[in-house]
Amino acid sequence: MKLVRHLAISCALSAVLFGCAAPHGQPSKGSEVLAPSEVLDFPTLYAENCAGCHGVNRRAGAAISLSDPVYLAIAKDAAISTVISKGVSGTAMPAFAQSSGGMLTDKQIAVITSGIRSSWGHPGILDAANPPSYAAKSSGNLAHGELAYKTYCESCHGPGGHGGSKGSSITDDSFLGLVSDQGLRTIVITGRPELGAPDWRGNVPGKPMSEQEVTDVVAWLGSRRVQNPGQPYSVSNYAQH
Q: Of 10, 72, 113, 171, which is least surrounded by CB within 10 A?
């Protein structure tokens, strides 16, 4: 009887201390590491795929904050999902979908898209504001865009967009080479509040930018792009060296 009792006590202690109740060679419950394609936790997916450019803790990084309420009010889920999936050609935004050469599954992209909206969206925040549309509805006029720039942007970004006392250059060739027309439009509408740049309503008190003025100023900015951005010398000078 003493031997049986000692064996029972030893087994119980072993189960508590070492998990002997689990079969040998099998991981204990909850210890399995998920494969990357099986991670469906929004905070993890955002931190590992988005925060590097769009910032952490609702702070913007090099790119706009995805928690910006104006951005979430004008951008529909389909547009956000498409950008995540396919990226934006010619910019710093890569494609994340496996179907486009990325690492994320369609389900993971859906989690990120819905997580952005459910975590940071403010339904109805612009209902009375009549904001410009996320995507342009018409072609832009360069001459009108230059006038719109002078009216709404020049006081901060300087003549010709080369920078001023309150804002950086927005016609810099490297900057324009890394941002799409849609990216420019988004910034014009949403602003960059963390940098002190107002949205489309705040450039001139009491005079928000119209749908067409946003389209025109984006067209004017886009027309300032150069073929070989970021080069301090001409291509011929590079060839000589």
A: 10
